[in-house]
Amino acid sequence: MAKAKTRTKLAPLHRWKWQGKGPQERVMKGELIGRTREEVVEQLAKQRISAMRIQKRSSLNGRGKVKSVDITLFARQMATTMRAGIPILQALQAISESVKKPAMVELTQQIMRDVSSGDSLSQAMAKHPRQFDRLFVNLVAAGEQAGALDEMLERVATYKEKVASLKARVKKALWYPGAVMTIGVGVTMVLLVVVVPEFESMFQGFGAELPMLTQLTVRFSELAQAFWLPALALIVGAIVLLKAAARRSESVAFSIDQFMLRLPVLGDILHKSAVSRFTRTLATTFSSGVPLLEGLETASGAADNRVYMKAIDEVRQDVTTGQQLHFAMRLTNRFPPLAVQMVNIGEEAGSLDAMLNRVADYYEEEVENKVDTLTSLMEPVIIVVLGLLVGGVVVSMYLPIFEIGTAL
């Protein structure tokens, strides 16, 4: 009968303030991350520091969330420290001491434990797929094999910064108009539900027929008072159900992504964004020595759109059968002719990675220009719409008062 494996529960991480004596009896002080006082004493001893006073500062467990920007900064810091000739474990220790976010400290400490137990850096990272995606792990593994880990980490950091910048532009295109219009509709609803009824009670004492615009506003106010809560519940419920359906059904998620690509202006931005992310990812993996087929598999997930993920999977299948990359891209009818032509030139010239990077740069610039154009065009439209919504309600409420003033 096999013995059940028992896991020792680790003590929580804390930040410790210490004071001690270093070489030549020099008084030193600082802060360290550790689980116990004994662990801190051991860390200081390795640095030839004799601890005199150690004080617990704060717990670092379970606070914060590791974000993409944290991982990018981690990769950049690891590349810098390793380029300076600092061993991996010492580099990880230095980063854990400099990082302020508790969740990132915990992650760095876990990687340190795995590396000190005999795992390579890529193997330790692979145990945290939410933070270190497949591309990250593959490139780190390639760097370890080639003896150029610092260069690969630098490349990963650069890649993630470019992808994050592209994501921010796309989010701006999606959220800016929606957020402003939502605020406008919200203000209008407040006017209809709260302000208009006060005017309506005042108008009842006039004993005269109200202007047509005022009558329409009063009717809208009555409808808003009666149905605003069910309408809000319906909208929120529909959004929640749609998200749940997209998570559970691949076909629903595919249909949503397909619908988004068909939207005017926004669809074009999403098209160009997917092409840019695909080519950027494939260029990064290919230039790092990752085989093309494996790079295509990684790039499929990086496209962040199921329509393009399916197209990239089709490209991979065609390349597996011996087709050239540019021809396989053309067969999907998803990639722009310019991108296909540039990839073709890169394959013929033997500089596919450089050409893929140029394609990514070109479409990133296109996305940026499109987003700037959309923002500049939407601003006057939004102002006009908000003016009509809010201004229309306000004017309709004051029309009877103006008429009374004229009659007097």
From TrEMBL:
Keywords for this protein: Cell inner membrane, Cell membrane, Membrane, Transmembrane, Transmembrane helix, Transport
One Pfam family linked to the record: T2SSF
Organism superkingdom: Bacteria
Compartments in which it is found: Cell inner membrane
InterPro entries: GspF/PilC (IPR003004), T2SS_GspF/T4SS_PilC_CS (IPR001992), T2SS_GspF_dom (IPR018076), T2SS_GspF_sf (IPR042094)
Residue ranges occupied by any Type II secretion system protein GspF domain in the UniProt entry: 74-197, 278-400
Bilayer disposition of the protein: Multi-pass membrane protein
Parts of the chain that traverse the membrane: 174-196, 226-246, 380-401
Family: Belongs to the GSP F family.
Name by which UniProt lists this protein: Type II secretion system F family protein
Organism expressing this protein natively: Vreelandella malpeensis
